[in-house]
Structures
1.
Amino acid sequence: MIRVNVFIRVDVKDRDAVVADARKLVEASLNDDGCIAYDIFGSETREDVLMICETWRDEAALAAHEKADHFVTLVPKIQGLAEMKIEKFDF
């Protein structure tokens, strides 16, 4: 399986918009073939920090997800409002 952790740093004024788009991304991504888990978390200590945690069956499922309409539409919107750092590993 593959885990992808996406760390998001967002200005507090844009947080609600980023969370709204991230929730749409989560909802759609949970239906992608090979998606084991997909969720968004907010920091309890910093309003400007969020994390999306994804688990995928394999590299092919993740690659297909990255080409899906919801991914290519919503991720650039989030990137336009926030900084994103990606951590990916097999487990």
Note: The chain has one domain: 2-90.
2.
Amino acid sequence: MLTGIIIGLVLGAVLALTIYILIHKARLKGQKESILLEAEKEGEAIKKEKILQAKEKFLQLKSEHDSYVGKKNNQIRETENRLAQKENALKEQSAELNKHLADAENAKKSLNAQRESYEHKVEEYNRLTAQVNRQLETVAGMTSEEAKTVLMENMKAEARTAAQAYINDTMDEARLNAAKEAKRIVINTIQRTATETVIENAVTTFPIDSDEVKGRIIGREGRNIRALEAATGVEIVVDDTPDAILLSAFDPVRREVARLALHQLVVDGRIHPARIEEVVAKVKKQLDEEILETGKRTCIDLGIHGMNIELVKLIGRMKYRSSYGQNLLQHSREVANICSIMASELGLNPKIAKRAGLLHDIGKVSEDDPELPHALLGAKLAEQYKERPEICNAIGSHHDEMEMTSVISPLVLVGDAISGARPGARREVIESYVKRLRDMENLAAAYSGVTKAYAIQAGRELRVIVGADQITDEQSATLSTEIAQKIQDEMTYPGQVKVTVIRETRAVAFAK
């Protein structure tokens, strides 16, 4: 009984479990079908949406493509229109050119016809002329060449006789008046423009108060002297001469710069290389102003106006330049006055003559074109600064290096000769000495990397200052040898020349 109950319970449980499982499977199957159905619907919606987006994108791309194609078609049509217009223009030009060619061909034919007609007339004229000449030869009893020769000889004889008579009369009159008049003009000119003879030296003496000042000028181990020599190009001679230092240089401008710089340094009391360079630069600027003022004052004294400022500066520089030992400014003033007086005596324009006389030697103080003779260089400068053609010609021809085309030119030549030829006016030796030293400096300055070159000790030493950023120490040694060799090959000089190349490196900084 109990066993039956247990079996029944077990069978009931099994049956209940089986029924539960079947119900659960049916429920899961319904949920699965519902999910699949929902997924299919959602997939169908997404598919339709993507198809719609693709259609919209396609329509957009198609619209852009149609727009791009339309623009390109418009550009092609415009290009075709322009090409058509150019083709039409070329056709018109071609037609016009063909018309011109046809006209030119017709003109050529017309010219050929005229030339043939002209040649025919020339032949007819020559035939008639030959016929007339034969008739004349028959009548005269001589050929045309013989008649021409006789006629020319007769005319030559008559012309020679008349010319000789005129020359004799002119020469007689010139002999009577020329010598007397020339002497009178020259004597009056010399009397009215007589001046002292100025002889420039190559040494300037700078007075000092004591040996203490001399020691400060020399500096520690001579560094102040070296700095001053490098800045001015002047040799500073400090010897046993009491209360004096010698400044030696062939260039008066350099000596004046060194003298004024030393004076300011001694008065100020601060003497060191940096201060020396500062004072030298300041003095050079002051000297440039003084040169300009000297040129202006000279022009005012001589009554010359309207001159270019650059020419005025060159006139001022003449004060510090000598010509064969004669101060160039004094010489030019003399020549200006001489030319003015002679022009007045001869009935010419004295102002133009005076202006030409004052400017005749400006080529000697110019730093441009050193290869040109100073007369031609002066004429070039005067022309550059808008001086009158007759003045330019007078400057260029006062040493017969240019053909004289103005009546003022002989006056400048004569005035220059009068001023330079009077006793004591000039010394040839100093001029050749100065030229040799200038040539030596120019020779060294022509090398690349050279910033300054100074000839000192009367030309026995050449100091060459080079840029530290352009020349190395090894190149400095090579450069000194090259310059020495070139001087030896190209120049004539007494004794020997010491070439010193100075290369200095500086580091500069500013504290602010």
Note: The CA atoms of residues 124 and 266 lie 101 Å apart.
